[in-house]
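Morning!

This is the sequence you dropped in the shared folder:
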Amino acid sequence: MAGKFEVYEDRGGKFRFRLQASNGQVVAVGEAYESTSAAHKGCEAVQRAAEGATVVETDA
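The structure's back. C-alpha coordinates below.
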Protein backbone atom coordinates (compact mmCIF):
# COMPACT_ATOMS: atom_id res chain seq x y z
CA MET A 1 0.00 0.00 0.00
CA ALA A 2 1.27 3.46 -0.89
CA GLY A 3 1.53 6.38 1.49
CA LYS A 4 -1.08 9.12 1.48
CA PHE A 5 -1.50 12.84 1.91
CA GLU A 6 -4.03 14.03 4.48
CA VAL A 7 -5.38 17.59 4.40
CA TYR A 8 -6.71 18.87 7.72
CA GLU A 9 -7.59 22.06 9.59
CA ASP A 10 -5.15 22.94 12.36
CA ARG A 11 -6.02 24.52 15.72
CA GLY A 12 -5.47 28.00 14.29
CA GLY A 13 -8.05 27.51 11.54
CA LYS A 14 -5.45 27.10 8.78
CA PHE A 15 -5.17 24.09 6.50
CA ARG A 16 -2.16 21.81 6.36
CA PHE A 17 -1.21 18.51 4.84
CA ARG A 18 0.73 15.63 6.25
CA LEU A 19 2.31 12.81 4.32
CA GLN A 20 1.85 9.42 5.94
CA ALA A 21 3.90 6.36 5.05
CA SER A 22 2.08 3.10 4.41
CA ASN A 23 2.70 2.12 8.06
CA GLY A 24 0.88 5.25 9.29
CA GLN A 25 4.00 7.15 10.34
CA VAL A 26 3.93 10.87 9.50
CA VAL A 27 7.00 11.63 7.39
CA ALA A 28 6.28 15.24 6.36
CA VAL A 29 4.00 18.13 7.31
CA GLY A 30 3.22 21.09 5.08
CA GLU A 31 3.03 24.76 5.95
CA ALA A 32 -0.21 26.52 6.90
CA TYR A 33 -2.53 27.44 4.00
CA GLU A 34 -5.60 29.67 3.93
CA SER A 35 -7.80 27.13 2.12
CA THR A 36 -8.11 23.43 1.50
CA SER A 37 -7.56 23.98 -2.22
CA ALA A 38 -4.24 25.69 -1.48
CA ALA A 39 -3.24 22.76 0.76
CA HIS A 40 -4.11 20.35 -2.05
CA LYS A 41 -1.91 22.38 -4.40
CA GLY A 42 0.88 22.07 -1.82
CA CYS A 43 0.49 18.28 -1.91
CA GLU A 44 0.71 18.34 -5.70
CA ALA A 45 3.83 20.52 -5.56
CA VAL A 46 5.54 18.03 -3.24
CA GLN A 47 4.60 15.15 -5.55
CA ARG A 48 6.07 16.98 -8.56
CA ALA A 49 9.24 17.97 -6.70
CA ALA A 50 9.82 14.44 -5.36
CA GLU A 51 9.52 12.72 -8.72
CA GLY A 52 13.04 11.84 -9.78
CA ALA A 53 14.60 13.73 -6.84
CA THR A 54 18.03 12.60 -5.72
CA VAL A 55 19.18 12.06 -2.15
CA VAL A 56 22.31 13.95 -1.10
CA GLU A 57 24.15 14.27 2.20
CA THR A 58 25.14 17.67 3.56
CA ASP A 59 27.04 18.90 6.59
CA ALA A 60 24.23 21.15 7.81
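Headline: Strands lie at 4-9, 15-20, 26-29.

More detail when I'm at my desk.
O.
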